Amino acid sequence: MMPLPFRKSRNTARVDVDAVVRKLKSLYTKYADVFGEKIFNLEAFEQRYRDALLNKVNLTNFCHAEITVFEELKTKVEKRSTAEAEASYSNVADRIIEENLQKIRKYRFIDFHPDAEEETKYLLGVITDFYYELWGQVKRTLKPLGERSFNDFMEKLENDFSYYVVPMRGLYSRAVDDYMLVLSRRNPKDSERASYNFIKYGAILLNNCLKLIADALNLVGLKSEQTESVGTLQEIRQHLRKIVTDFRLSEIRGY
Length: 255
Known about the structure:
mainly alpha, 2 domains, disordered N terminus
């Protein structure tokens, strides 16, 4: 099983998740009475929720995805577009997944294993590029500030980057080796969980970088002599935000 160096947050807003699930169940029942269970399939939704709990999927992300799918189905049937309204959940979901993949296909692709999820290959590529092309600029900008908290945080992030992207033995990093070890066992549930853990680790790493830069900007922004540093950090922050948005990782944080 892939190690998870990040501690899981206990602030999961469980009550909100339960409320969303209850509301969606009620809406599926209501709309199934009018438009049929083929389109608004409550049993299928409940099974997806059970699978999410079993596989320890981020429930906030699960709720966002389910709300998006339901709203699209609802919009289509209310516009009385018969052809679209009869589309199954899987067709709608497949289209949403494809649209999301299109957003990340502009980034570097590292094909480290034929059975690895496509998103993990792009995520590894974009984090690898960030580490080798921009992370050094962040460190060179922040170290002269002499802030111990920044230096400690950068040391932690350096270790996390080393685990995720820096080759240790052979071609790939320890994180990739751990993921490939699980894939080699050919257990679908374990492979899916390993894929999620790999994405989760990368998401927390990127969001921690964003937090570091935001904290630094709050400090150097108060110093007129740090104009160049502010510009550099703002550009890198903008680039990071775009990555996090394109990969839909904003809700997966370690803080």
